[in-house]
Amino acid sequence: MDLNIQDKVYIVSGGSKGIGEGITRAIAAEGGIVVMATRSKGVTETLAEDLKAKGRVVDYVIGDLQDEGQCEKIVNYTVNKYGRIDGVVNNAGVNDGASLEKGPAAFRASINLNLFHYFDLAHYALPYLKESKGSIINISSKVALTGQGNTSGYAAAKGAQLGLTREWAAALLPHSIRVNAILPAEVMTPLYRRWLDTSFDDPVAKEKEIISKIPFEHRMTTSDEIAALAVFLLSDKSGHTTGQFLFADGGYVHLDRSLT
What we know:
With 260 residues, the protein is α/β, with parallel strands linked by helices. It contains ten helices and seven strands.
């Protein structure tokens, strides 16, 4: 199936690790051009070298997305070098455990870490997305709908991302810009591994417990499965899909777990 993304240009925030890495690799494999926006210099350079050795076109801008002007810098770099932007994947963020008990300062810092750059990157890319009739994907989380406990800031940011998805989808209808959200549930990324290893006395037992509650095949979703959905949403093959919340989660959110 030709997804018609060859030589099109996509910005992926947090595009060098975990789910973001999977999305970068998937776009590049289809012939798209990826500009990764990340603060992780070493792993980003390694990923770029790997993909370039395979004949892929990838690039990156290193910097903290929380810094004022960083998102504008990323957009300007992309347009100056590649002449266009066909899509933005807002993905960067951290489930940082800013709980109700930790107080207002931690909550505000978590919102800054997980939410504001989603708006900023879309805002600065918008004139070019209008030209290309492009697409925006917001990577949210099942936490936005289910809660998790002890992560108020992250949950609030992820819920806000869903609100922005619907708002932008409505606002950008006249420009034929599609906006959708993907809500991962249990995906074994480096950040997820760190959470398991640092939050529980017996991480192996906790991992087994979590997997036992995933209805489909009792396994975690892979980053590649999230990435495949993202590439489809960016492509012309999903040309009439907008304002949607999509789940690749093995039925974790919507199926009755007593079925398993």
